[in-house]
Design a protein that fits this description.
Blueprint: H1 15-22, H2 28-31, H3 36-44, H4 48-53, E1 59-61, E2 64-67, E3 79-82, E4 87-90, E5 96-97, H5 99-107, H6 111-122, H7 133-182, H8 188-211, H9 216-229
Antiparallel strand pairs: 1-2, 2-3, 3-4, 4-5
Helix pairs in contact: 1-6, 5-6, 7-8, 7-9
Length: 230
């Protein structure tokens, strides 16, 4: 996932747009053939961050992803994606919804047509949909993998936030302690407290570097151990 975003890129020659332009309107009878089972399978095979990421450059913003909204002239990232809720929301123009709504707005099509577009992307035939054992197993694996990713993401964000809070707290104490020492604090008790505050900050900073507390591989290893224990 890129760390920065400069602009959104709509893939004008993408397969999704070609499908959207070539697909004729569906009749009411045809629309009725889109079963809940088909929609569930298509949704599982169309993670919202992947689908939107094919059209918008995304970067992480805390527990969410963000990028420039393709539905208005957005110069600063105002489109946010919640992976845990599988929805998007633009704080600029107010657009929002699930992955089907994103495709519907992107291609100016109906809900049923957005289902067809994503079905083509996922390699699913909507008409007469009958999930094969292989497809059902694939969807189950994808769902389990996705839930595991979300659980790790929650663990990682919680752990990083805890480290950041401690780092900021110790940093503020160290800055205050340094000011006291620079001011020539004469009280031996306060003098010792100031040096202790500086030492705690320096030690914690060194521990972050030494133990790699914020590194992805370290967090994944710790997460795996916690899962095995549970």
């Amino acid at each position: 996932m890129p760390d920065t975003v400069n602009h959104f890129e709509l893939q004008s020659n993408s397969s999704l747009e070609q499908v959207a332009e070539a697909r004729p309107p569906r009749s009411r009878a045809e629309r009725s053939r889109i079963t809940p089972e088909a929609i569930e399978a298509i949704r599982a095979l169309s993670p919202i961050e992947q689908v939107i990421g094919e059209h918008v450059q995304l970067r992480r913003s805390g527990i969410e992803l963000k990028g420039c909204c393709p539905f208005h002239a957005d110069k600063t990232p105002s489109l946010y994606i919640s992976r845990t809720k599988a929805v998007f929301r633009c704080h600029g123009c107010g657009a929002g919804g699930d992955v089907f709504e994103f495709i519907r707005l992107l291609h100016h099509c109906s809900f049923c047509e957005s289902v067809e577009i994503l079905a083509t992307r996922a390699g699913i035939q909507v008409n007469g949909f009958r999930p094969s054992p292989e497809l059902a197993a694939k969807v189950a694996v994808l769902k389990a993998h996705y839930q595991d990713e979300l659980a790790f993401e929650g663990f990682r964000n919680h752990r990083l936030e805890a480290i950041n809070q401690q780092y900021r707290s110790l940093g503020r104490a160290a800055a205050y302690a340094e000011n006291c020492l620079r001011a020539g604090e004469a009280d031996p008790y306060v003098h010792d407290l100031a040096w202790d505050a500086l030492k705690r900050f320096i030690d914690f900073e060194a521990r972050i570097e030494r133990e790699g507390l914020c590194e992805l591989d370290v967090l994944k290893t710790e997460w795996s151990k916690l899962r095995d224990v549970a």
